[in-house]
Design a protein that fits this description.
There is one protein chain. The chain has about 325 residues and is α+β, with helices and mostly antiparallel strands. It folds into 2 domains: about 180 residues, 3-Layer(aba) Sandwich (Peroxisomal Thiolase, Chain A, domain 1), CATH 3.40.47; about 140 residues, Thiolase/Chalcone synthase (Peroxisomal Thiolase, Chain A, domain 1, 3-Layer(aba) Sandwich), CATH 3.40.47. Helices cover about 35% and strands about 25% of the residues. It is built from 10 helices and 15 strands. The strands form 5 sheets. The protein has a 5-stranded mixed beta sheet, with helices on both faces. Strands 8-15-14-13 form a 4-stranded mixed beta sheet, sandwiched between helices. A two-stranded antiparallel ribbon has the order 2-3. Helix 7 packs parallel to helix 8. The chain is globular. Bound molecules: acetyl coenzyme *A.
Length: about 325
């Protein structure tokens, strides 16, 4: 049994329909909802997002991302023995999107399950996969974040509908003789359920309660900056590393001001911050693996770099993972 786990390939996928702030503002104006490119850019840093076509599901987006990750790792689907999909917008109530994805990958038999930690989902999922690999339960995992958040947006609520987008990111995580994942730190505070939620559910043959995303943006903002700093510091301490060892900070891509605030608190120069929120919006569980893959394929992140991945979101949940690529 190998003592560590390591990322051997990354991949991502964005649905082809790209919607700029100006296009969204025009579309919303048709519904009597007023917003502007200036407001969205100044408050969030978002310039565009991608929306999936109505028939496209999270597992469809995940499939493309996984194929790219497998290709990068030089692996075939048949070599995978664990699939974890972090999502809050699964294809069905059940079975899991991970099972649907497994079938689309043309394989059967390996463990597959969804993990629900909203925007912290990928950080939770990679931590679980790392633990399963180090315990010998799995040897080669697909760890995925995939979302179609456009399905749960209330397009009459300008304070939320301009923030989110659709997409998927994936990594192949393999058992390794040398350390990849160095340390992680996961948290949740269920007393904050109400500040970010989709309260509706399916019951008695219909949707019971509100099926749209609700957010107290200012409450989320205040909590996010503090917990992202503390999770990063705890993770560094667990790994016996310091801020100076971080080559790249990849926080959840929700709002550029939260991301810059986190980098500043950790005394990291802004050029170490990976930013894709401007082009992707907030893709929830997909945001961190999407940003990771964009920076790997863009040539910014190189093999051997030390990365701090961070998530924060509904639950309230938050966490961090430090790794050597
Ligand atoms: N266009 C124009 N005006 C708007 C819009 C919009 N899209 N949305 C809100 N406004 C208006 C408001 O109505 C308000 O107007 P008023 O002053 O006349 O009442 C004004 O702008 C200010 O609104 P605030 O909500 O105070 O704006 P704020 O500066 O707090 O920014 C934002 C809002 C961007 C949501 C911010 O609070 C934020 O980013 N919060 C964190 C979100 C986050 O990180 N989420 C991550 C987790 S996501 C997950 O887990 C699924």
């Amino acid at each position: 049994m190998k003592p560590y786990s390591r990322i051997t390939g990354t991949g991502s996928y964005l649905p082809p329909r790209r919607v700029t702030n100006a296009e969204l503002a025009t579309e919303l104006a048709g519904r009597g909802v007023e917003t502007s490119d200036t407001w969205i850019v100044e408050r969030t840093g978002i310039r565009a997002r991608h929306f999936a076509a109505p028939e496209v599901t999270s597992s469809d987006l995940a499939l493309h991302a996984c194929r790219h990750a497998l290709e990068a790792a030089g692996r075939t689907p048949q070599e995978i023995d664990l699939i974890i999909v972090a999502t809050s917008t699964p294809d069905m109530v059940f079975p899991s999107s991970a099972c649907i994805l497994q079938h689309k990958l043309g394989i059967a038999g390996c463990a597959a399950f969804d993990l629900q930690a909203v925007c912290t989902g990928f950080v939770y999922a990679i931590t679980v996969a790392d633990a399963m690999i180090r315990s010998g339960t799995a040897t080669r995992a697909l760890v995925v974040g995939a979302e179609v958040f456009s399905r749960i947006l209330d397009f009459s609520d300008r304070s939320t509908c301009v923030l989110f987008g659709d997409g998927a990111g994936a990594v192949v995580l393999e058992a390794s003789d040398t350390p990849g994942i160095l340390a992680s730190d996961l948290h949740a505070d269920g007393s904050q359920v109400g500040i970010l939620c989709v309260p509706g559910t399916v019951s008695g043959g219909k949707v019971l309660g509100d099926p749209f995303l609700k957010m107290d943006g200012q409450a989320v903002f205040k909590l996010a900056v503090g917990v992202l700093e503390s999770a990063a510091r705890t993770t560094l301490a667990k790994a016996g590393r310091t801020e100076a060892d971080i080559d790249w900070l990849i926080p959840h891509q929700a709002n550029i001001r939260i991301m810059q605030g986190t980098a500043k608190r950790l005394k990291l120069p802004m050029h170490k911050l990976v930013v894709t929120v401007d082009q992707h919006g907030n893709t929830s569980a997909a945001s961190v693996p999407l940003a990771l893959d964009a920076a790997v394929r863009g040539g910014q992140i190189r093999k051997g770099d030390t990365l701090m991945l961070e998530g924060v979101g509904g639950g309230f949940t938050w966490g961090a993972v430090l790794l050597d690529l």
